[in-house]
Write a structure and sequence with these properties.
Blueprint lengths: L2 H22 L8 E8 L5 E8 L3 H13 L1 H11 L7 E6 L2 H44 L1
Parallel strand pairs: 2-3
Antiparallel strand pairs: 1-2
Helix pairs in contact: 1-3
Length: about 140
């Protein structure tokens, strides 16, 4: 199957899943959820919907349980939107990419702050050395 068709179907899966989760699910366990992307198998039988969930680990687990429970409802909404022979079975997967990107950003900021502090220390040492050399010059003359 052509990759552009898979990409279009994956985009429809992502749109339907996010609209359904945002506007139609009434489950109180499902909150602070962002649908990040969707992947569809080559035969259009299975779809992975990647979600990013904010909150504590316990809240994330509870939300994932609610999402897994509501996968059939999301799949029925998808079946109404897709005009294919088979409706992909939906599986929700926690996307760790957002958490990793926040961690990498934090590490980069720490490294930049450390480099800035080291550079300031070197500049201060250079200024002290230059001041000491300036004090020594008049004595030699």
């Amino acid at each position: 199957m052509k990759t552009h068709r898979l990409a279009r179907v994956a985009e429809v899966v992502r749109e339907v899943a996010s609209e359904t989760v945002l506007f139609q699910l009434q489950d109180p366990r499902i909150k602070n959820v962002t649908i990040t992307r969707a992947e569809v198998s080559a035969d259009l039988q299975h779809a992975k919907v990647f979600v990013s969930i904010m909150g504590t680990e316990k809240e994330q687990d509870l939300c994932m349980h609610g999402l897994r429970h509501s996968a059939g409802f999301v799949q029925s909404k998808l079946g109404g939107r897709l005009k294919t022979r088979f409706t992909p079975s939906i599986r929700f997967v926690k996307d760790e990419g957002v958490k990793r990107s926040l961690e990498v950003t934090r590490l980069i900021n720490e490294a930049l702050a450390q480099a800035g502090a080291d550079e300031q220390a070197r500049a201060a040492e250079t200024a002290v050395d230059a001041g000491a050399a300036a004090v020594e010059e008049p004595e030699e003359a």
